[in-house]
Design a protein that fits this description.
- By secondary structure, the protein is mostly helical.
- The chain has four helices and no strands.
- The longest helix has 22 residues.
- It is globular, with a radius of gyration of 12 Å.
- It starts with a helix and ends in a 6-residue tail after the last helix.
Length: 75
């Protein structure tokens, strides 16, 4: 499950996301106008992951992705 989680999020970082006007999270992280939207999107992902961890007794994290995106404020 941890490997699948890692693969999914590695792909997510480079995929075009509608909520970011088609930019990838990597591109949005570098765009001052899109960065706030990326932060909100990642906050939603963190809440969902936290709930999933609690419900399923998991210990999955997105810290590595937040580091790669330069979103240290969410760590």
């Amino acid at each position: 499950l941890a490997e699948q989680h890692l693969r999914d999020y590695r792909g997510f970082l480079d995929a075009g996301i509608a909520a970011l006007d088609g930019l990838s999270p990597r591109a949005a992280a570098a765009d001052p106008e899109k960065r706030p939207r990326l932060i909100e999107l990642m906050k939603q992902h963190l809440v969902i992951l936290e709930q999933r961890n609690r419900d399923q007794g998991l210990n999955l994290t997105l810290d590595w992705a937040l580091e790669e995106l330069g979103l240290r404020e969410l760590l």
